[in-house]
Write a structure and sequence with these properties.
Blueprint (H helix, E strand, L loop, with lengths): L18 H12 L4 E4 L4 E3 L5 H9 L3 E10 L6 E2 L6 E4 L5 E4 L3 H5 L5 E2 L8 E4 H6 L13 H11 L3 E13 L14 H13 L4 H7 L12 H9 L5 H8 L3 H4 L9 E2 L3 E3 L5 E3 L4 E4 L10 E4 L14
Parallel strand pairs: 3-9
Antiparallel strand pairs: 1-8, 2-9, 3-4, 5-6, 7-9, 10-11, 11-12, 13-14
Family: Belongs to the glycosyltransferase 2 family. GalNAc-T subfamily.
GO molecular function: carbohydrate binding; polypeptide N-acetylgalactosaminyltransferase activity
EC number: 2.4.1.-
Length: 312
Amino acid sequence: MQPAHLPKVRIVRLKQRSGLILARLAGAKVAKGNVIIFLDSHSEANVNWLPPLLDPIAEDKRTVVCPFIDVIDFETFEYTAQDEGARGAFDWKFSYKRLPVLPEDEKNMPKPFKSPVMAGGLFAISAEWFWELGGYDPGLQIWGGEQYELSFKIWQCGGKMVDAPCSRVGHVFRKFNPFPNPGIGDYKRKNFKRVAVVWMDEYAEFLYRLRPKYRNIDPGNLSEQKAIRERLKCKSFRWFMEEVAFDLPEKYPPIEPPDFAAGEWLSLTYYKDIRLKEWNLCMDVESGNDGEPVLLDTCHCLGGNQLWKYDV
């Protein structure tokens, strides 16, 4: 479908709800440009956002570039810029996390800097490189895990990924999922299992320790994905952890140290946050002002407004 008032725009409509991953693959298959840019629908590109994404790819087609993701408030649409930047990462439950920018990269700001893992929604990639990597794994369903699969594949198979501070795209972070489960069960667990089996080698065991049910999940046919890894002579996940995400285990240990202090409902953890047991909720204050109320918010393991000290 081609809108009359936008002659260069093509709209691809799928016959059924297929989820984010397969929808992106469908769009990529009909794209004609040398570079494919993926953006979430609930995002807004800022001024001059495109050239900083294209420049690194022009120098090296195996470089994947992510913009800085600014925040658009879910209720007011107020736009808040991200200032300091961070590198993408993950914990061993496969929750997306962030690592500090390396000191040498801070000195070179605003030049693009390497990042182990993308947030997932917004990035630019050479079309040739995307398809050489096999695109997204078509066995991944709806959404979840695709950012890890593509990030690991990019790094382990000879590419690199950078964040470009001069490219700004605002993103609406929704407070709830507006779409119900399409009736295919817990697809995210299966997605995570596929990624772990194909790309993580012996490190998948750390995921299974924290998510024991993953061991018994059938990931489906992985022959095509394993063939891609063999064809491209991709490096091991150990290489990825030692050369790319070398500081991740210090921040997000594969085996978490014991809590510093524990009560019936709350624990002071290794990350120096106070969290509700069995839930990923931490005591949080919105600012450092005296008298601020203490709230419960999602644990981010970055200290700051969730940093607590326990004196004995």
